[in-house]
Each structure stands twice: as structure tokens, then as C-alpha cells.
Amino acid sequence: MSLAPALQFSHDQAEALDQISEALAAAGVDLVNGTLLPEGGSRRVLAVVGKAGSGKTMLLAELCKALAAAGVDTVSGDWEGRRRKDRRTLAILAPTNKAASVLRGRGVPATTIHRILYTPVYDPQYERIAEWLAGQGSRPQVEGLSEAALDRAKAFYDVVKSIPGALATAGLRGADFIKGWKRRDEPLDIGLVDEASMLDERQFDDLREIFPTLVIFGDPAQLAPVGQSGEMVFDRLGDGQRLDLTRIHRQAQDSPILDLAHALGDESLGFEAFEQMVQDAARRDPRVVWAERVESDLMARSPVLVWRNVTRVRLIAAFRAAHGAPVDALLPGEPLICDGIELPLKHRKKRIDLEARGLIKGAQVIYLGPGTKPGFSRLHVVGAEDPRFSAASIIKIELADSEEPFIPYAARMGAAFLHGAAVTIHKAQGSQWDTVQVFAPDLYAAAQSGRIEAGIPLWKRLAYVAITRAENRLLWVVRNRLARPSAPLGIDDLPRGVAGLVLAAGGSDASGGDI
């Protein structure tokens, strides 16, 4: 049995797909004939493992298409219809909004792990609209919504299968129809998880509980989660569960950025020799730049990637000074990184609300301005499908000459944020940007430290992760200098997502509800 000829996979991809197909057949999905079978009741975990350019995303995307063709329903996390006995479900997941948005940009309907762990609770009258849009109910009559508004919602849903998007075109905000979030009660059938190198043991256990059939995709050369001794969850899988992709595909071989990333696999390569390779690549190809300074214009949306916290804090201070940011406030357009949720255990529902909207540790956020309530901030979560809302915030700006951070805005409890103009390479894992700046003096310091992680020099792991965050252009910054910005900070460049549709439909608030 093989799907490879139809999909034109490489030999290692075809072998991996054959083994995945066998696992799915045991679970009641026949990819070869495109049909659903009686449920087999088996449980299986497989890992597809390969370096950048080995075709993991291509395999995941084609697998999604084959599952959809077989009649498996994709669950988005925005809304779920009534479960039918003959229904089979699929969710495509990533650890962060940014990682999920990278997949969505490639045509894969991905969502975050949190949006599957926690499901939205809809207001009953608006759930009737959702059921109608999804073909599970008759056209409803809803007080306050005209027939024309329902027609707009239906026209939108017929093109874009998003319940929140459709309701937004009818003039509703998320706060109108989503009343909260709850932990998922029932398991789903099949889970495909990208960026599995970022998973910790707790997340992995949650996923195995929800999905009887789980296929994770990961890069063994990336950095393991903090506290796992350099191990990734797929390193502990038994024989036959790990499917290795080793071939680098033609489209990847044409990338000077991936050439540099793969060169790091040479055990004899030292830091100085690698920097020479970067300089040589910069002479040959404009996609690699040997940069004598950090570009402050890029830092607002694509952070400088560093290893040391002291470097991160100094670059952030220089960025704010270059933009003339006041010492006691943030400017609209300043980037932030979510540093976790500061809520006691008794506020579990509020924590779920924040996490489900994308405010999980490491999430990239743009500050839009103060909220209408004290301690609240209007935020744009990068990569989220509905990115704008107001949330109770604790914003900390670390200072180079002080152990205590400056706190321009603070609620008593809520989402905590650090500045995001520069981030550690660990926090950048799972994200991608069109252009990436890597602060090379920090990697030199890592090389000088002599540290080893899971048998590989730490500087090589850091360099590999940092380099592969760049989709099209890499700036290898070799001097501790900052260019002046060419324009002031702003927010006009930010996409509005689903929330932006509210204004187009005549709504009153494009920044979402308060949480």
C-alpha cells in the first residue's frame, strides 16, 4: 500500500505516510480508498522527525487533504457541532498562535493546542445561528438580527468556514456570542501537531488523552523545552513510532538560509568558520546580509534574536530610546511578549478565557493603547484569528541599570508582559518572520562558554533555531549598534482578523471585548 505516486512524495516521505496510513486504518480511516471504516478502538502515537527543508509541512498538508477527502471533519476550536456516531474528527495544532498562523498561511487549517483543550461556550440564541451555518439546523429567527444580517453571515461562511467571522459580518462581537470557555469534555479522533519540539510532558499527556491517534511533527535540531534536559517528547518514543525524514528537497536546497542551517550539522565546524560561511553567503545572495548594525525598524514586528537576557534588555532600551518612548508609558505599536498569567487558582475560568484568546507564555502581542478600565490594555495578539481585545495587563519594562522592572500599566491580576523588541532564541522557537535579525555576538559568547546540550554545542542549536526563523531574509548582526528608525511607531500595518470585520459590518468596537 502506498499513496506516494499520487502525491509525488520522496521515498522517506512515502514510507512515513504508509505507516501513518496503517495507523489511521486501524482507527477507522482508509486513506487509500478515501472512506471511513468502523472504528477500530486502537491508540497510536507517531512522530515525523526531520530538519528544516525535509518536507514535514508538505507531508502534514497532504495528510490533511487526504483526511478531508475521506470524510473526516476538521475541528477549528471556534465552534463544534453536535457529535454524530458516524463522525470522525481531526484537529491540526501548534503550540502558539504564531506557529499556527504559519501553517494557516500555507493552507493548513491549524489552531492552537489551547483552543482545542478549551472549547467556547456560546450564548444559546447565537449557537442556533452556528448550527444553521454548519448545516445542522434550520434558519433561525434571532431578536435584534435582521434577515439581511443573517444573509451576510451565510455568504461569509460559504466562503470562509469561520463561525466567529460569519457572526462578525452580522454585526456581532465575540463578547456577544462567546460567554466563556470550558475544558473539553469529549475526546476527538485524530490530532496532527506541528512544532513538537516545543511540547513539554504535560502538554504531550493532554494531547494523548484527547486524541487516540496522534501524529506529531518535530525538528530534532531545535531547542528542547526548558527543564527537560535537552530531550524532546519524541525522543522517548519506542521503536516503530519515530519516522525520520532525511532528504532535503529541491525547493529547500535553493535557500542560502537553509544551507547555513544544515552546515551546522558538521561536527568539525567551529564558530569562526561558520561566520565565514555567513559572510560568503552574503556576498553571493541578497537573502543573507552581513549586518554592521541592528535595524530598529524591523524590531517593532520582528524581534532581534539573542541568547543572553542582558543583551535583550539593552537592545530593548536602545529601541525605546530611538523611538522617543516616554519613560512612564508605552507607545501604540510597541511589541510585547506574554510572560504568563498571574491569577490565583480560584480564578481558573478567567485564566482559561485569557489562554483561549492566545495569551499564553511566549505569545507575541502588539500594544494598541490603554483600555477603558483601569489596568486594562488594548492588545493585538500576533497570529490569532481574532486578534484584538482588551485585557487586564501587568506590563513590565526591564531596565539595564535596575533589578526592578518599570511597570507602566498594571492590573492586580491578569496577563503579564515583557517588552518584545528583542527576545531570546528559546522564546522565538515555533515562530517565523519574513526577515530575521540574529545578534551574532551572543552566539559567539555561547560558543566561548563551551556548553553542550544533548551532545551538541549549544551555540549550534541556538544558531540553527535562530536562522530557521527566517522565511526569506536573514540579517547576521555583528556589531552592537542600532540604526535610527525611519518612521514612528504605529498600528496601521496590523491586520484586523475577524474583529476587523465588525467595523465593516457597522459594529461599534474593533478591539473586541474585555477579559
What is the fold's blueprint, element by element?
Layout: H1 4-7, H2 11-26, E1 29-30, E2 35-36, E3 44-50, H3 56-69, E4 73-74, E5 89-94, H4 97-104, E6 110-112, H5 113-117, E7 118-122, H6 124-133, H7 147-159, H8 163-169, H9 174-177, E8 178-183, E9 190-193, H10 201-210, E10 213-218, E11 242-245, H11 250-253, H12 256-263, H13 271-284, E12 288-291, E13 294-295, H14 296-299, E14 304-306, H15 309-322, E15 335-342, H16 348-356, E16 364-370, E17 376-381, E18 388-397, E19 406-410, E20 414-419, E21 422-424, H17 425-428, E22 433-439, H18 440-449, E23 452-453, E24 456-457, H19 458-467, E25 470-477, E26 482-483, H20 497-504
Parallel strand pairs: 3-10, 3-11, 4-5, 5-6, 5-9, 9-10, 12-25, 13-26, 14-21, 14-22, 18-20, 22-25
Antiparallel strand pairs: 1-2, 7-8, 15-16, 15-20, 16-17, 17-18, 18-19, 23-24
Please mark out the parts with pLDDT under 50 across 5 or more consecutive residues, or reply none. Answer: 1-7, 499-511
Per DSSP, what share of the residues sits in E-state strands of 2 or more residues? 15-25%
Radius of gyration: 23 Å
Task: Please identify the structural class as seen in this structure.
Answer: alpha/beta
Distance between the termini: 51 Å
Q: Shape, please?
A: globular
